[in-house]
Amino acid sequence: MTRVVVTGGSGKLGRAVVRDLDEHGYDVVLLDRVPSPDKPERVPFVRVDLSDYGQVLGALTGIDDRYDAVDAVVHLAAVPAPGQVPDVALITNNVTASINVFHAARVARIKNVVWASSETLLGIPMGEHHPPYLPVDEEFPVRPQSSYSLGKAVEEEMARHFTRWDPELKMIGLRFSNVMDETDYPAFPWDASPEAKTFNLWSYIDSRDGAQAVRKSLEAELTGFEAFVIASPDTVMDTPTIELVERFVPDIERRTDIDGTSSLLSSEKARELLGYAPEHTWRNHRAS
């Protein structure tokens, strides 16, 4: 059994990741500043301040009465969006937590690190800085538009160099789309106000599929740094995606046919290299 610590395991995505890993036989430890409201009983909670490198190093090397070694790290803890704290406070919090986790993992000789990067590196919120083509993928340089996404860009650059220093290390940054769960779906679809979701081209990811992507990343036989877009294959809309493109972003190059309500964020790389196969959609929870 592999022991995985999950930072931010009490958040929306974190709770789904903890449940998924636990259900698939992993020895999971939840690290956060607050307890989870619904963690599995056998998953221990450890209160950790990720801004304190000493605490992070201790958490990744062993804690009395909990464990004496860690095999892998899933780092999800962060201020999750811009606007929640002042800009510099946000980037300072998030980047400090990530460098502490990355460096402590290196000291602890942990070779398997997966963390939450973000769709915002693709140029979100969309506006005057549209992506160069559709569907959006990982092939063009990141283009952060906020303090939040700038922090994610810094984290990905750090990961490139950590893996350059250690050829055996795997660091996977998952560029999650807007995370949703079953409590969000009564508000779907968003056809009455499509403008409200133009910021990320009407995309989302079900937290359970996000958790699957985390698990597949932990299990992937890769080394080095990789970034993957993780999105649902459909949009938050009933309106056909091509109609939304022609109405809101008609001048962007289209590299493939856009059918039905397909997402404009491509997760093909994750499908090919990780075996990512999303199973959940808001449409399964549509009110009768």
Features:
288 residues; alpha/beta; 11 strands; globular
Describe the overall structure.
This protein has 288 residues and is of the alpha/beta class. It is 31% helix and 16% strand. It has seven helices and eleven strands. It has helices spanning 12-23, 53-61, 87-107, 147-165, 207-219, 241-248, 268-274; strands at 3-7, 27-32, 45-47, 72-75, 112-116, 133-134, 170-176, 179-180, 205-206, 224-230, 253-254. The strands form three sheets. A seven-stranded parallel sheet has the order 3-2-1-4-5-7-10, sandwiched between helices. A two-stranded parallel ribbon has the order 6-11. It has a two-stranded parallel ribbon with strand order 8-9. The N and C termini lie far apart (42 Å). 43% of the residues are buried. The mean pLDDT is 96.
Query: How many β strands by DSSP?
Result: 11
C-alpha Rg (nearest Å): 19 Å
SSE pattern: EHEEHEHEEHEEEHEHEH
SS summary, helix count? 7
Structural class: alpha/beta
- Read across the widest sheet, the strand sequence of neighbours is 3-2-1-4-5-7-10
Spatial gap, N to C terminus: 42 Å
Shape: globular
pLDDT under 50 segments (min length 5)? none
Strand percentage: 15-25%
Mean pLDDT: 96
Strand count, sense and barrel status of the largest sheet are: 7 strands, parallel
Query: Helix fraction?
Result: 25-40%
